[in-house]
Amino acid sequence: MTTVRLPLFPLNSVLFPGLVLPLNVFEERYRAMMRELLKTPEDEPRRFAVVAIRDGHEVAPSAPGMPDPTSLPERGPAAGFGTDPAKAFHKVGCIADAATIRERTDGSFEVLATGTNRVRLVSVEASGPFLTAELETLPEEPGDEAAPLAEGVLRSFRQYQKRLAGARERSLTTGADLPDEPGVVSYLVAAAMMLDTPTKQRLLQAPDTASRLRDELKLLRSETAIIRNLPSLPSSDLTRGPTSLN
Questions:
Q1: CA quadruple 79, 81, 86, 89: dihedral positive or negative?
Q2: Angle at CA 138, nearest 5°, toward 186 and 213?
Q3: SS in 3 state form for the chain?
Q4: Which residue windows are transmembrane per the record (predicted)?
Q5: Distance, CA of 48 to CA of 54 (rounded, Å)
Q6: Closest CA to 132 of 7, 3, 30, 4
Q7: Are strands 20-25 and 109-125 parallel, antiparallel or unpaired?
Q8: pLDDT tens digits along 137-153
Q9: Each residue of 86-99: pLDDT tens digit?
Q10: Which of 53, 107, 125, 187 is deepest in the core (most CB within 10 A)?
């Protein structure tokens, strides 16, 4: 396996290959990361790794907290992630390529990145101004019967969209054609479904595309049945991904 060391950006969400990630960067440790990335020539990828947080806080406390209101907030690159940051994160993440990094007048950054390929967390280093990680690249294996599984997932996903739109008492805002390449389908559906972080993480770290599609097919059928029986179920837009506060 090929390994690489990159800046590490932990989030309370899962990034999938091919999906867009908007970020509002205001904490100093991540500002320092963006300043470092801006040193990379524009014709080269400005890459960092995104991992989902298993146990910790995306934004470190910035004021005295409970139960002791006089206690000082944590500082430094690992603030909010305990004494061993590696244990606070899920082990499989995704490399992000920052297409846009814009610094605001107050020193914060507006970032637009895209997930590229999956990586496994090997180790985390917290000695610098921001976290870095040694990462092992993961192969993208198709698995058995990925193509027919993708067709089934797309059919079920369209039914899921229709049910969800009906539950919200409005029509879908997107008429765009969905892709049919199995790997792309598997990640798009994983990102678009209304699932909790552990379930999305499970889909990200599936051993191959076919396994991910099989899991998604079960989830789609289950979620569609739930929405059918609970027509007032609230949900957020399928086509709008969450913007991290940091």
A1: negative
A2: 20
A3: CCEEEEEEEEECCCCCCCCEEEEEECCHHHHHHHHHHCCCCCCCCCEEEEEEECCCCCCCCCCCCCCCCCCCCCCCCCCCCCCCHHHHECCEEEEEEEEEEEECCCCCEEEEEEEEEEEEEEEEECCCCCCEEEEEECCCCCCCCHHHHHHHHHHHHHHHHHHHHHHCCCCCCCCCCCCCCHHHHHHHHHHHCCCCHHHHHHHHCCCCHHHHHHHHHHHHHHHHHHHHHCCCCCCCCCCCCCCECC
A4: none
A5: 19
A6: 7
A7: antiparallel
A8: 999 999 999 999 999 99
A9: 899 999 999 999 99
A10: 187
Residue 159's contacts (CB-CB under 8 Å, 6 or more residues apart) are: 220, 224
Name the one residue in this structure whose structure tokens are 């990680």: 133
CA torsion, ordered 57, 130, 91, 109, to nearest 10 deg: 70
CA pseudo-torsion sign 97, 204, 58, 49: negative
CA angle 151, 153, 159 (to 5 degrees): 110
CA proximity to 114, closest of 245, 9, 21, 200: 21
Higher per-residue pLDDT: 55 or 16:
16
Residue 80 identity (one-letter amino acid):
G
Mean pLDDT score of the chain, rounded to an integer? Answer: 85
Asked whether 242 and 15 are in contact (CB, 8 A), the reply is: no
Give the number of C-alpha atoms closer than 13 A to the C-alpha of residue 38, restricted to the C-beta side. 13
| 124 DSSP β-pair partners | 133
Q: What is the pLDDT of residues 183-205, one digit of tens each?
A: 999 999 999 999 999 999 999 99
- pTM (predicted TM-score): 0.82
Q: Which of 110-114, 159-163, 184-188 has the lowest mean pLDDT?
A: 159-163
